[in-house]
Description:
single chain, about 625 residues, alpha+beta, Immunoglobulin-like, TIM Barrel, Jelly Rolls, 3 domains, 11-stranded antiparallel β-sheet, 10 helices, about 15% helix, about 35% strand, globular
Amino acid sequence: xxxxxxxxxxxxxxxxxxxxxxxxxxxxxxxxxxxxxxxxxxxxxxxxxxxxxxxxxxxxxxxxxxxxxxxxxxxxxxxxxxxxxxxxxxxxxxxxxxxxxxxxxxxxxxxxxxxxxxxxxxxxxxxxxxxxxxxxxxxxxxxxxxxxxxxxxxxxxxxxxxxxxxxxxxxxxxxxxxxxxxxxxxxxxxxxxxxxxxxxxxxxxxxxxxxxxxxxxxxxxxxxxxxxxxxxxxxxxxxxxxxxxxxxxxxxxxxxxxxxxxxxxxxxxxxxxxxxxxxxxxxxxxxxxxxxxxxxxxxxxxxxxxxxxxxxxxxxxxxxxxxxxxxxxxxxxxxxxxxxxxxxxxxxxxxxxxxxxxxxxxxxxxxxxxxxxxxxxxxxxxxxxxxxxxxxxxxxxxxxxxxxxxxxxxxxxxxxxxxxxxxxxxxxxxxxxxxxxxxxxxxxxxxxxxxxxxxxxxxxxxxxxxxxxxxxxxxxxxxxxxxxxxxxxxxxxxxxxxxxxxxxxxxxxxxxxxxxxxxxxxxxxxxxxxxxxxxxxxxxxxxxxxxxxxxxxxxxxxxxxxxxxxxxxxxxxxxxxxxxxxxxxxxxxxxxxxxxxxxxxxxxxxxxxxxxxxxxxxxxxxxxxxxxxxxxxxxx
Length: 636
């Protein structure tokens, strides 16, 4: 059912709270506090909802509370709050991107503002990988000493108020705690009292059990940005030798100090030097779905078809990233396999996973381990692999998995490589059940852009799902060396029962905070040439929806009798125009061009909210949320 809202066009804007919106674009932004007064004055507001993480950190194994040495990564780059501050994304070219999530346990967003609240894009990306996120509370230099005196030198109520407020903020925005960074003189008694209060609050809220403390005596140490990668390698080797946790500060130096065009190559080289000292963790929940999107690209693609051209950057849109590695194969050393991310092509989003390799004649099938899972498996799961081979390659591509024993593991409905191995090649799903048609509608077909989707069914009982691998093999009977270039566009592991459950509907879609602007000078010139008069519309959409079953929301508009494409071209008859992605139940439409209403007539623009399930299938347009805005000129 469509909700209808009416507005009279007025060029007297309703002021937006400066903290929550970029002053130049009015786009929602993440923010920080520069003083204790700002911190203590904060109370949750509807505008804060833009910055709330989609969900808590994914279940992982081993848990963060295990005794294994941990790895903390501190993002300390160029002052922070750069293009990553734009909650709904931006058109940034060559932004910084981190994707070696399986190698770290805790991510700290750092700046030199008193209270650094992590931009929600980082929290969403980290949580998707089972990584906890900390903000920063910092005091430094003379001003820092004065600030500490202001709340620690008084009675207990003053520092309790600060600690309680920090805990409240972490709870509300759904990140996991704080790095407390005090770089000025401070009495031991005052520091201990404050940290104890914050630690108790964090435990009560289900957090990490208290803040990490960055001090000179901290056992967790690590290389700074000025050290060469080789020196960082030696530092980590020494740290791990003694069983310490490690903290890596400002790893973005490969972005800041080296050529941007070589960023991905340099990033992979840097982390490859460290990976042997960085124990990985496993994700332990289903559904497991990834398109390998980095949350950025030079164009936007959906199901192999181009949606929009031009650079984009949206950290919340980053999907689960694999284990990146380069392997030398057995034999005389001529064989190798290398994985890397690539922006040149995509199945969904802006990037894909590129796997290149050479298989010598004496080497059999090669399996590349991509993901480590630790999932108690339901009785039946469906798996899907989307890939394409480039160039004249005849290698055979297949998805493989490993299982562990969760009691008495029984595997059925698949081909087993051998009787003693726990690695399996699932049987392709040839005739899917009717009810699953919208998930498997593309299985086994040649898809746009040369992509192929293979679907599999696995029946299990009492098993743990372990690694996910992709194998490459020469054609049967071939004894020649085989080189290949393969792109992976998507991998899915889905509980079969989840595909039978109905999705909730988008409810109570509203339009508020409407702001009108006159046409730009370029649009006025178009009007003089006979084009319809234009206005620019900004507004906030809000709706109700249970967030747990979705990857994101896609926000569209249907201009109807009074609108046009955001890029100025006609959208086509009744074809929705994509405005952007949302990861919460609200979205800010910014400067959408619409046709001005004529005298005595209503203009109309319709907004649609499309939920994107974690399982990845398309939701019919009839099930999207929808609201119409009717607008008219003021009566004289």
